[in-house]
Design goal:
Elements: H1 2-32, E1 49-53, E2 64-72, E3 77-87, E4 98-104, E5 115-116, E6 121-122, E7 124-128, H2 138-152, E8 167-174, E9 177-185, E10 203-207, E11 224-226, H3 233-248, H4 251-257, H5 264-277, E12 288-291, E13 297-300, H6 330-338, H7 340-351, H8 357-368, H9 374-383, H10 391-408
Parallel strand pairs: 1-8
Antiparallel strand pairs: 1-2, 2-3, 3-4, 4-7, 5-6, 7-9, 8-9, 10-11, 10-12, 12-13
Helix pairs in contact: 2-5, 2-8, 5-7, 8-10
Amino acid sequence: MKFKYIRVAIFILIATALSICLITYAINIEYKQIEYREIPEQIKEETPKIYIEGELTMKDKTEIGKFKVKYKSKNISIDKYATLKIQGSSSVWYPKKNYTIKFFNDEDCTDKFKVDFGWGRENKYVLKANWSDKTHSRNIVTAHLAAQVQDKYNLFQNTPNNGLIDGYPVEVYLNNEFHGLYTLNIPKDDWLYGMDKDNPNHIIMVGEKYSQATVFKELSLDGWNNQLDDNSPAVQQKMLRLINFVMNSTDQEFKEDFEEYLNLDATLNYYVICHTLNIADNTAKNLIFVTYDGKIWYPTLYDLDTTFGSFYNGLELYPTDYPLHMSHNKLFERLSILFKKEIEQRYQELRQTVLSEENIINEIDKFYSQIDPSLFEKEQQKWGELPGYEISQLKEYIHARLPYVDKIMNYKTNKVNA
């Protein structure tokens, strides 16, 4: 009898062990479906450093300060002068500011100094604070993905990053004290789009606020501004021509004449990228349309720190199944109805390539791996707990959002596209 109980006990132990193994195996199988690459422990190259000498006393975007500036990286060493000016819109109210930085040879900042940080020799750049995104990743990761999309359709070929900003992490020091982790970015300027300021047909129209005009429901330029500072009547008429077409064309005209006013590939790309990455802050304000001939306009993305579900302030998240409301903009409303098949086909092509989960995760990891983890600790010591979420949130969000977008775009997983 005693041996009988021992045999039963052994049987129970073996059964329990097997159960634990099976459960563990099942958990591992489930986990591997969403397993992500680890961030490399060793940063390949030391983060570039920018040293600023002087006091950042500028209170608003109208004031410009002059400073002694040094830049040090593995390949570049600069000891020059620079002007700094507060940059951004709502971000100007955050404690840690964005700055437009222009380099000069002389203390009076009259002799421009052009330096190549990877995009050609230029004088003007942006130091982005990324206050609402403590990972510093959303803006540039999204730009990299969008640039890959544009490149797939041969758009913005003669530009530094296919019409999108680019940048990389830098440490900024003010009077030899750590001031913060920033990214050094391409500015919203003529060279971002490969434009010539002296060409009257080269225009960058920016939606600087929400208005009936910036959602194509009013024939005016309320809220629109030419980034190249030419708002002459001739330039205005070129943009009004586009607004009038979107507002007043018949459905047949909108469909047949679309490419006399807008580049279809660029417009389809804009729509698909916004839905996929839930870019909720770029459907009226932050809209950018550029033209090279004064007739055909290309929508392009900018100011991308509120992607992957983040609210504008980094304090809340949109649900992963949030239905992006682009239909309040008449252009995108008509596009979604009259070019529905083309939108679905474009999503089908991109979902299996650039906008695959694997490629999106790769871009997140590629950028984030450039940042030494100790810099986040220094950032917190300097500024306290910044808004935003950890890098894992971006990965978890896209993993959950893609099936939702697949459904609304009628994505067919077994279809093979070129």
